[in-house]
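User: Here's a structure from my thesis project, written as structure tokens. My advisor, Dr. K., wants to see whether a designed sequence matches the one we expressed. Can you design one independently, without my sequence as a hint?
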């Protein structure tokens, strides 16, 4: 339990490599004698292995081990379903929906978030309603249902605030920012983003900070403030590098290279985007990797 709790805390603060070590140690201890933990979910309202795999799934995904992260999330759901405890299953489903969201797989995020939300409502698990509904809403928007999706995100945020949840607030607000950007409510998006950044600074909830900074860059660019947008994207890349969050580094690097045109783009492609893209390799089929490949190919062809 100590390794699990410390691993989860390190993940939230953006210390991903340290989080991974603690979570893998917790999983190793569990696997030495799983019988010791049978029935413990009734006492702790969760199972140690399921919970560790949930956090490990997110950690690996951000570290850039995208397929391994998805496998960990799917294993968590499968293990929870074998145990048969509804709360443990709901816990795993919600985290798996988040993994799909971070991978930018809107179809699978929608499916898993809907499963999680329906189970949470059926069982009365208030702690999983808000996040599941927010992810479901963002997934609806990514699949073209903008108005319905934004409404779901707003309702999910209200549900999350209603239980006075302390963790994952910046992540939740980022979903609202995405929705507001999609419907061109730029002033509202700016206010929400400022709130998310302030909460991240105050609480130390930093695992999503690179993506918040990238969204700040996107918002500034939409407002025509290109120099400030470039600064925000460079800050996003730097924070992602400090955290070892290669997926977010790749995403922000691609955004920066799309923003900066002209003679400076070639240097950015070579020095900022190509090295992190090369780390993933051409065989990875994740959406961010595919988009980075397109940016590189277009830049070289220009």
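Assistant: Designed independently from the structure alone:
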């Amino acid at each position: 339990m100590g390794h699990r709790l410390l691993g989860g805390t390190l993940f939230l603060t953006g210390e991903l490599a340290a989080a991974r070590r603690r979570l893998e140690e917790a999983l190793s201890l569990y696997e030495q004698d799983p019988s010791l933990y049978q029935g413990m979910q009734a006492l702790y309202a969760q199972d140690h292995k399921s919970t560790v795999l949930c956090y490990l799934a997110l950690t690996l995904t951000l570290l850039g081990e995208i397929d391994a992260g998805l496998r960990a999330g799917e294993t968590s759901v499968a293990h929870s379903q074998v145990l048969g405890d509804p709360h443990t299953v709901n816990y795993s489903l919600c985290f798996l929906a988040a993994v799909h969201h971070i991978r930018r797989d809107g179809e699978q995020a929608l499916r898993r978030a809907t499963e999680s939300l329906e189970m949470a409502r059926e069982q009365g698990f208030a702690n999983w309603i808000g996040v599941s509904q927010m992810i479901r809403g963002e997934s609806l928007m990514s699949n073209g249902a903008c108005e319905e999706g934004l409404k779901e995100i707003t309702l999910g945020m209200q549900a999350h605030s209603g239980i006075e949840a302390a963790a994952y607030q910046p992540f939740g607000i980022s979903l609202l920012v995405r929705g507001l950007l999609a419907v061109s409510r730029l002033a509202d998006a700016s206010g929400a983003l400022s709130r998310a950044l302030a909460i991240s600074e105050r609480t130390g909830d930093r695992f999503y900070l690179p993506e918040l900074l990238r969204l700040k860059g996107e918002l500034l660019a939409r407002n025509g403030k290109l120099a400030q947008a470039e600064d925000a994207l460079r800050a996003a890349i730097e924070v992602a590098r400090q955290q070892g969050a290669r997926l977010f580094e790749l995403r922000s690097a691609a955004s920066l290279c799309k923003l900066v045109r002209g003679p400076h783009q070639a240097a950015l492609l070579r020095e900022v985007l190509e090295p992190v893209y090369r780390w993933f390799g051409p065989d990875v089929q994740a959406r961010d990797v595919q988009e980075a490949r397109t940016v590189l190919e277009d830049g070289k062809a220009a």
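When you compare it with your expressed construct, this may help: DSSP finds 16 helices and no strands in the chain.
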